[in-house]
Amino acid sequence: MLKGKSIVVTGAGGGIGRAIALVAAAEGACVVVNDIGAALDGSGSDEGPAHRVAAEIHQAGGQAVADTSSVSEADGAEAMVAAAIKAFGRIDGVVNNAGVLRDGFFHKMPAEHLDQVLKVHLYGSFNVSRAAAPHFKEQGSGAFVHMTSTSGLIGNLAQANYSAAKLGVVGLSKSIALDMQKFGVRSNCIAPFAWSRMISSIKAETDDQKERVARLKQMTPDKVATMVAYLLSDAAREVNGQIFSVRNNEIFLFSQPRPIRSVHRGEGWTVSDIAEHAIPALKADFYPLEVSADIFSWDPV
C-alpha cells in the first residue's frame, strides 16, 4: 500500500512510533526513523532507539535511515525532511508522533512544564509539517498524520498541558487540511489507545486503576499503526481533515465542534434574562465533566 513512498515518523524509537515505522516499511515505504531517545519527561538523549528500529527494518528487507533531530526546533524538523530527500529522493508522508509527558494538577503546574509539552507536541507537529509542506505543494501530493489524544478531545485529570497541546494539534491538522487541499495534500488525526511508554506512567494503585491498566495492555501499538499506514496511502485520497481513534479492534470517527442548540431574543439579552431564560433552555445539552475512561468504559475487544 505504501510502495515507493518516503515517510518521516517522529518518536519512532519505541512504542506506537516504532510500530508505525515497522508497518509502513512492511507496506513498502522508505522510512526516516526519528527519535532523540529522551526520557518520558523529555530529559536526556540517546541515539540508540532510532538506530535500532532502522536496523530492524533493514533486517526485514526494508529501507530506513535513523535521525536524531529534535522536533521542537525548526532546524531539527528541516534536518529530518532533508534526510528523507537525501536518502530516498522525495518525501510523501509525515507522522507526528513524538511526545513527552509532564503531568500534574493545574494549580500546581509550573509554566515550564506547559512550555515543554507544547514545544514537543504542538510546536513539533507544526515544525515537521511546515518543513515538509513546500515539498508536498511542489509535487502535488502528500499526507500528514498527527497524534492527538482523548485527553484533549474529552478530558483527563492532571494533564492540562498535554490536553491543551493535543487539542491544539487537532486545530493545526484542520487548518493544514483546509490550506493545502488544493495541492492534493491531506491532514488527519488519530487519538490512539495502545500500551506504550507514554501511558505506562498511569498510576495503578487501586483495584480499578489496575484493571484499567490491564485493559490498556491488551491494546497493542500495531493496531494503531495499520490505521496510520492506511491514512498515508493513496487509498485514503478522499480522507481529509478527520479525527479518528483506534482502540484495539475498533476504529472510531470523532465528531467535531459544531453548534448544537441556540436561543434567540429579539430585543437582546440582559444579564438576568440570560440567567432566567437562556441558560435553563440550553442546560439540558451541557456536557458533563467526564474523563476519557468515562466515555470508553467497556473492555476492548
TrEMBL record:
SUPFAM superfamilies for this protein: NAD(P)-binding Rossmann-fold domains
Ranges that cross the membrane: none
Pfam families in the record: adh_short_C2
Annotated ranges, domain Ketoreductase: 5-198
Entries under Gene3D superfamilies matching the protein: NAD(P)-binding Rossmann-like Domain
This protein's name: SDR family oxidoreductase
Source organism per UniProt: Rhizobium glycinendophyticum
